[in-house]
Amino acid sequence: MEAPLPLLTAHEVRILGCLVEKAVTTPDYYPLTLNSLTLACNQQSNRDPVVAFEETTVVRALDGLREKRLASVFTGAESRVSKYKHSLNDAVLLTPAEVGLLCVLMLRGPQTLAELRTRTERFQPFESLAEVEEAMQILASRPSQPLVVKLPRPPGTKEPRYAHLFSGPLDVAALSSSATATTAEPATLAVRAENERLAQLESATAALRAELADLRQQFAEFRKQFE
User: Distance between CA atoms of 11 and 32, rounded to whole angstroms?
Assistant: First the structure.
């Protein structure tokens, strides 16, 4: 039985989804440079939410994916810059159709069967909604680890939506109510992403300062031994 995948942050999910997408849709330009990957994350189309990642944000998420063995650095003889590729297929045994469904969910959030069928055309066309539903049921009932979940149908809607579980169990009530909520403007989403990045930087800086203070104290105590 496959080992369960480690939980991913929202940034790691976006990075992994972009790597999976570009491996299929633009194979001639894959693996991706850091610049290309950042542009893929910040696309205005086929993304929900729209974000404005900086390269430093992408690097941090890549480091996390590499630690979790879901991404790696590719260094070819003809390339002078590092390029990145995903290792999802090495971690989980998936069909091309399942890869396409998971990729679209990672990049566009919860969706109906009809939306998934339309948006996975670039990966693996489905003949009917029944085929999409069957594939989703397989992903939702994997013995080692369910990868998707069917959400309750929100009031006023006809079709239920599905979401991925790469970041762990979901707040189903919040997701269901958000189906009819107003989508935030790209500028708002960009500010939220920037605030999150700044909070991470502040936390890392505080940790470094504490570590430096500890090292200074240890050095002072060490020097006293020779005075």
Answer: 17
- Indicate the CATH number of 10-178 among 1.20.1050.10, 3.40.50.720, 3.30.70.1350, 1.10.10.10: 1.10.10.10
SS3 label, residue 148: strand
Report the pLDDT value the prediction gives residue 218, as an integer from 0 to 100: 79
Beta carbons of 83 and 31 less than 8 angstroms apart: yes
Measured in residues, the chain has a length of: 227
The alpha carbon torsion through 51, 155, 104, 123 (nearest 10 deg) reads -150
Residue found by looking up tokens 């909604």 in the block: 129
Q: Are 47 and 108 in contact (CB under 8 A)?
A: yes
Find the farthest-apart pair of alpha carbons in the chain and give their distance in angstroms, rounded: 82
136's enclosing H/E stretch is helix 129-140
| Contact between 12 and 72 (Cβ < 8 Å) | no
pLDDT at position 221 over 80: no
Both tokens of 92, joined, read 């989980």
C-alpha span between 214 and 102 (Å, rounded): 45
CB 180 within 8 A of CB 156: yes
Other C-beta atoms within 10 Å of 144: how many?
12
For the stretch 100-155, pLDDT in tens is 999 999 999 999 999 999 999 989 899 999 999 999 999 999 998 999 999 998 78
Asked if 14 and 41 touch (Cβ cutoff 8 Å), the reply is yes
Per residue in 11-44, pLDDT tens? 999 999 999 999 999 999 999 999 999 999 999 9
